[in-house]
């Protein structure tokens, strides 16, 4: 009878049972006082992609956002602290001292909520989400890219793309429809109008269909104003749809093609003019129509009757333009088979002259 009495103390002395409370307490500390620690619906911020170094990406994002944020909105201020101190003015001295002590203890936890920029776990590799408070992320990111585009000064090494996120919702089609109906009104509801394109990207999500999302969002934009039209070459607005796990991030940005799809590394490069990038823009977009254009361009490379003849006609037209009027060169450009016939005639004539000589 003595042996069963000795078994409970052996099981209670294990380390696994004592480890669980510490793990729960550690998780609670991460969530207390810091606001949302993960990407969730109802947030605004900036979605940043990097190259295999998320910690360095966060550091560069803080320095860059604070630099331009101070220029646009002034230095950061902690308004909630002033409200807490003003609320205890009418109380007694003893109560004021006790409240001040409590407020001092809570400062460390509330300070993270008051920060203008705070990193949040995005739920995907090489992706960083910076939550913003009291800032319009679209204007801030556009200001950063516009300055870098003009100065051509490289200020980051790890950050690749920087996309503003004006709102987030659940990544389900019905939820996205309800949210987009009110979200897209400031840009596309009458009397507002403009040309647009939709760029879609999904990470760690398999239940969303790309074509269905694009069709539904395009239908919502058309229902807000019938004058809104799709333009894949030079749109006024680009609707950015970024899905990560069960969260959908939405935004409407300007100059998406001019700023090289909001890529900080490409904007700094002194490349071609934006007008020269128009033929490549449909290939760089994100909706279904652009994918069809990509397949069409690849098919033209395999069919010499469509692709190679057009490339060969370019230098010939320059030479013909010096001796022949423009009307003749235009006729040659329209008919793909005529330049080949002319070249064959010239080759035969040259061979006849050689035979006669």
Automatic annotation (TrEMBL):
<feature type="region of interest" description="Disordered">
    <location>
        <begin position="73"/>
        <end position="95"/>
    </location>
</feature>
<dbReference type="InterPro" id="IPR040183">
    <property type="entry name" value="THUMPD1-like"/>
</dbReference>
<feature type="compositionally biased region" description="Basic and acidic residues">
    <location>
        <begin position="289"/>
        <end position="305"/>
    </location>
</feature>
<protein>
    <recommendedName>
        <fullName>THUMP domain-containing protein 1</fullName>
    </recommendedName>
</protein>
<feature type="domain" description="THUMP">
    <location>
        <begin position="147"/>
        <end position="254"/>
    </location>
</feature>
<comment type="function">
    <text>Functions as a tRNA-binding adapter to mediate NAT10-dependent tRNA acetylation modifying cytidine to N4-acetylcytidine (ac4C).</text>
</comment>
<feature type="compositionally biased region" description="Basic and acidic residues">
    <location>
        <begin position="337"/>
        <end position="351"/>
    </location>
</feature>
<feature type="region of interest" description="Disordered">
    <location>
        <begin position="1"/>
        <end position="39"/>
    </location>
</feature>
<feature type="compositionally biased region" description="Basic and acidic residues">
    <location>
        <begin position="316"/>
        <end position="327"/>
    </location>
</feature>
<dbReference type="GO" id="GO:0003723">
    <property type="term" value="F:RNA binding"/>
</dbReference>
<feature type="region of interest" description="Disordered">
    <location>
        <begin position="271"/>
        <end position="357"/>
    </location>
</feature>
<comment type="similarity">
    <text>Belongs to the THUMPD1 family.</text>
</comment>
<feature type="compositionally biased region" description="Polar residues">
    <location>
        <begin position="1"/>
        <end position="13"/>
    </location>
</feature>
<keyword id="KW-0694">RNA-binding</keyword>
<dbReference type="InterPro" id="IPR004114">
    <property type="entry name" value="THUMP_dom"/>
</dbReference>
<comment type="subunit">
    <text>Interacts with NAT10. Binds tRNA.</text>
</comment>
<dbReference type="Pfam" id="PF02926">
    <property type="entry name" value="THUMP"/>
</dbReference>
<dbReference type="GO" id="GO:0006400">
    <property type="term" value="P:tRNA modification"/>
</dbReference>
